[in-house]
Structures are given as C-alpha cells and as structure tokens.
Write a structure and sequence with these properties.
CAT-like_dom_sf; globular; Protein ECERIFERUM 26; 209 residues; Plant_Fungal_Acyltransferase
Length: 209
Amino acid sequence: MVSSDHLNLVYDIKLSSVGPGHVTGSDVVHEPSNMDLAMKLHYLRGVYFFSSEAVQGLTVYRIKEPMFTWLNHYYWTCGRFRRSNSGRPLIKCNDCGVRIIEAKCDKTINEWLEMKDSSLTKLLVSNHIVGPELPFSPLVFLQVTSFQVWRMSLGLSWAHVLGDAFSASDFINMWGQAMANQLPQHPVDLPKSSCFHVGETREPAPTCH
C-alpha cells in the first residue's frame, strides 16, 4: 500500500481514450477461450522507464497519434464485455478504446528509483479492475508519466482475459513499432474461432476437464 506521504508524488492526472483508426464494425465480437476466462480476475501490470535520449521532445500528442494505427491491429483490446444469450462472456469489438492516463512527477527517474519502495509502482500504472459496469469498463490502461529532465514512464495494465504475458509483451512492442512507423501491413492473427460476426453459425467452444 502506498504511504499517504507519497500520494502526491504523481499529480495532474488526465484521462482520455484512444481507439482504432478504422471502424471495426457493429457486430464483431471476440470470444475468449476457456483458459482466458479462467484468468478473468487476473491482471498483468508493468512499468517501462525511458531515458531522456529516447523521449526528448516527445509530446503526449505524438505518443497518441500512432496509437490509432497500432490499435487497428489490436481492435479487440478496445472492446467491452457483454454476455451471449447463453451467458458466456464475450468482448464486443465496439472501438470504445483503451484508457490513457497522463500524469506528471516532479522527481527524476533516478530519484524515484532511489526511494526503493516497490509500492510506489502503483502510482505509475493503473490498478483499475474490470467491472462492476462491464459495458463501460476498459480492458487496457496505459499511463504516461512525465518525469523531470525529459524522462518518461509507460505503465501497462492488461486484463489477463485478453491473453498471456507474451500477448501483452507483443502488444506493447508493437506500440514501439508504431512510434517508429514500422507496423506490419496486416492485423495480428487471432484464432479463427475467437472473432466472428453476430449471427454466424459456430461450433461450441471446447470445454476444460
């Protein structure tokens, strides 16, 4: 738990959302696997620190701009949970977007790390959980915190139901490709059974025993 003395270390917090640049469609849904649903109460969270050489002159607008193209490849991460007629949770790919948090800190990254308090990490990455209002609850949070001397951290909160740690790593690495304007031409492949249009005839999802 973060000490009350440290709560003001990160301030000027602003919220916004960014979605895909292309409309996914009104009837596209992503069906998480049974293994994904078994991890629905778990989250993967991490913080990346960037030096002044990497981010000097980089504005929040410049960070957000390539996200529209990046999220075309990860459109299902911008959706919200719904339930099928059978009650099974589905992600409706409605392009509501990932949640962006902008924040500031008056310390340098070196000063931050010298405090040697692991609980402070919670100030650099969202601790939001999915729910209780599922239709309005983002599955991915990205927090951009600006430190002194042109340094920055990027905090990722990834609902495990979207995929494992490798999926989350691929997701954030592709953001780096987007920043360098080196995105692949085609979206990331999903299992054919996981994304479909409402009304399609589909085989039942396999069950775990």
